[in-house]
Amino acid sequence: MNILVTGGAGYIGSHLVKQLLETTDHNVTILDNLSTGRRKTVDTLKSIREVEFVELDLKEFDKVSQFFRKNSFDAIIHFAASIVVPESVQNPLKYYMNNTVNTINLVKCAAENSVNKFIFSSTAAVYGEPVDLPESGIDEKCLTNPINPYGMSKLMSERVIQDTAFANTDFKFVIFRYFNVAGASDDLSIGECHEPETHLIPLVAKTALGKRDKIMVFGDDYDTIDGTNIRDYVHVLDLADAHITAIAYLENNQSDIFNCGYGKGFSVKDVIETMKQVTSDQFQVEIAPRREGDPAILISDNRKIKTKMNWNPKYDDLALICKSAYEWENIV
Fold first, then answer.
1. CA distances from 316 to 233, 284, 311 (A)
2. What is the tens place of the pLDDT at every residue in 290-318?
3. Which class for 280: exposed (0-12), middle (13-18), buried (19 or more C-beta within 10 A)?
4. Cβ distance 178 to 260 under 8 Å?
5. Cα 286 to Cα 216, 218, 265, distances in angstroms
6. Element of type H or E holding 119
7. Exposure winner among 43, 140, 154, 185, fewest CB in 10 A?
8. Nearest of 177, 207, 216, 189 to residue 298 by alpha carbon
9. Which CATH class is domain 2-182+234-261?
10. Ordered alpha helix ranges (H), the chain
11. Is the per-residue pLDDT at 123 higher than 90?
12. 176 φ, ψ to 5°?
């Protein structure tokens, strides 16, 4: 198959591309504007086997349209997006333009050029602040009610994809609602590189390595066991594997939406203590005010993806995830 990966030079996209190149014979094209993706990452991927890289911004509609007319793809895996929740609160238009408007145009190009498989990188942020959280976690039928523009921009994109599939029966999709992604490739050739970094696990790893003076805990007065946010952390390699599984899934199954997490939650303090144990480093921790747009608890119910897609995660261990992130940060 010919597969287009938008945002393939970024964190999650690059891990998916790496697995595609190493475990399949699909032809892979990366489309990325390198605003957050890295050319060094592209070079690493090219060293595995042949992969085409196109530097292009999805907001350049005419160029994107020309690109699709000149190329033929069987599937699109769409990662390219802005992802920082506090920034989305401060600059919502950036998120609606980049995440929603650009996705609409990408779906339009796919439909016009008979690209009938679309795998979309969504987020657990579409659920917002769940009321009466089930003991098993949030399932895909839970109410979607985002509390920040990031989550809303993704939910709007989900609806566009669903409506397109309803109107065009040849067009099929898988929407993945990610929980918190972390970790690096086993060989440490690629990993998480955001500038500025806003994700907890890499920030804690940087602190343990002395790259930061302290780790800030944004709020210790949430309605949780220890007062800090609780999240479901998933290793990037398991997430990449889910996308490869989705390509084959769409061959013989209908469109669907899947949570992608481990179905268990860890607090910010849990993550900090785990990193301290993994690294034997007692770094400084400081409590700060809450950030805008942060829900108290987000834990997945992952039974659907395990049952329908036979997804079998291999890295379901917080200590392993923290160790992977720490080792990556140690060589960056």
1. 9, 27, 12
2. 988 788 888 999 999 999 999 999 999 99
3. exposed
4. yes
5. 5, 9, 22
6. strand 117-123
7. 43
8. 177
9. alpha beta
10. 11-23, 39-46, 61-70, 85-90, 92-95, 102-112, 149-167, 200-208, 236-252, 268-279, 303-308, 318-331
11. yes
12. -105, 125
Single-letter residue type at 209: L
Name the helix (H) or strand (E) containing 267.
Answer: strand 266-267
Rg (CA), the chain: 19
CA distances, 198 to each of 51, 85, 214, 277 (Å): 30, 9, 14, 22
Q: What is the DSSP string of 234-266?
A: EEHHHHHHHHHHHHHHHHHS--EEEEES-S--E
Q: What pLDDT, in 10s, does the model give residues 199-256?
A: 999 999 999 999 999 999 999 999 999 999 999 999 999 999 999 999 999 999 999 9
Specify the pairing of strand 75-78 against strand 266-267. Answer: unpaired
* Phi-psi sector, 233: left (phi>0), alpha (psi -120 to 50), beta: beta
Out of 150, 233, 249, 315, which one is annotated catalytic?
150
How many whole angstroms separate alpha carbon 259 and alpha carbon 159? 16
Distances from the Cα of 323 to the Cαs of 97, 179, 271, 318, 330, in angstroms?
A: 36, 19, 11, 9, 10
Q: Using omega within 30 degrees of 0 as the cis cutoff, is the peptide bond preceding 134 cis?
A: no
DSSP-assigned beta bridge partners for residue 284:
214
Q: Which amino acid is at 160?
A: V
∠ CA 80-82-83, rounded to 5°: 110
Per the listing, tokens 């400084």 go with 284
With a pLDDT cut of 70, the percent of the chain lying above it is 100
**Three-state secondary structure call for residue 208:** helix
**262 among known catalytic residues:** no
- Name the helix (H) or strand (E) containing 233: strand 233-235
243 close to 119: Cβ distance less than 8 angstroms: yes
Q: What share of the chain is helix, strand, coil (3-state, %, to 5)?
A: 40, 20, 40
